[in-house]
# Entry
Amino acid sequence: MNILYISNAYDVRKIMILVILACIPGLCTEIYFFGYGVLIQMLLFIIISLLFELIILKIRRKNIKNSLFDCSSVLTAVLLGLSIPFVLPWWMIIFGCFFSIVISKYLYGGLGQNIFNPAMIAYVVLLISFPVHMSSWNEKNSSLSFYKDIKNSINLILFHQKKYDFKEKIYPDSFTEATPLDDFKTKSHFNYDLSQEELLIKKKTKNVSIAWKYINISFLIGGLFLLYKNIICWRIPLSFLSSLFFFSSTTYFYSQNIFCSPLFHLFSGGTMICAFFIATDPVTTSSTKIGKIFFGSIMGFLVWIIRNYSDYPDGIGFSVLFANMIVPLMDAYLKTSGYGRKNS
# Structure
């Protein structure tokens, strides 16, 4: 989001609601492929986030109605819920909500004062603290009925499979966002011939690639809706996707056996939700036009670096936080003058 590009007809609450509505295509697609656990977990994120916000507002003696109903915490919870696997136990959800709402938002003064994206702070803390849980995306068992799927999801989240009472097994990491990226990266580190490996991966995990391709397309549709409503600025998504496309194309043409294709990067992992929903946070991004282009370009470069050379399969969270860190520096050197004034 970019406040400078938002019409005066929108207040904070309307902006948050429109962004949440734009998440619906991606949410429905994730539910289709991963099951109703995505929705259950997101509802938990929203309820716990609002409870944390209510407690903080009570402690600070702030206006509860204005702060609680601006929907900013709901949006943070939705973005966090869409970014993590649905198999997280309930206490990890509380852990994540604490860092997103209490630490990264209200410890800095509340809405508009935070320097880091709250959802990505929680995501990175969970990823570092619980790497196994954060890399396990379980496949929805298509043989389950609607009610069994809900029951299974509740058992996974609240009881972590202790009350798993039917025979069908769910294999951890059998249907994961991270696996295709991680497979390519691991093979490249060991100089595997990916031309052959890719065929095997595609054969074994064809549904995985298709699922995340559709999920990214869904978030792309939601992002285009936000652009149409002038809620977000085009500079950050375009520069981020262009940067990621450029670096992945360069390396892909250098060696197709080692590096992933640019289209694979664009439609895998959290690329589209980052481009249109996370990186465009108006509070934590640059306030200048050229700064937004630098901001998106740096993020695209970092995502490419992390996906290819780090131990983490997807670099969205780290890239967003690093870019947030250098925003004050960018604004200091790339500041623009006001009307009728020159830069000092």
Q: What stands out?
A: The first helix runs from residue 12 to 22.
